[in-house]
Specification:
The chain has 75 residues and is mostly helical. It is 60% helix and 0% strand. The chain has four helices and no strands.
């Protein structure tokens, strides 16, 4: 997907994506939802949304999926 690991950790720290579970060795174990959220964030940024707005909307359960559908439809 081409997202820098530091960027992903930053997104986790500000709540744009949830922190993933960890493996027994302590590595992050990203799931499909994380990938979908990263794709959503990138698409929203390409359309001009600020990261602060994306973060705020991401905190509402399920809202990012609805917004993603609208963004895909408009692009």
């Amino acid at each position: 997907m081409g997202v820098n690991p530091k960027t992903i950790r930053f997104y986790e720290s500000i709540g744009v994506i949830p922190e993933p579970p960890r493996t027994p060795a302590g590595y992050r174990d990203y799931e499909e939802e994380h990938v979908e959220r990263l794709q959503f964030i990138r698409a929203a940024q390409r359309l001009g949304l600020r990261l602060e707005d994306i973060a705020e909307g991401s905190r509402v359960p399920g809202s990012w999926r609805e917004t993603r559908a609208i963004l895909w439809w408009r692009s």
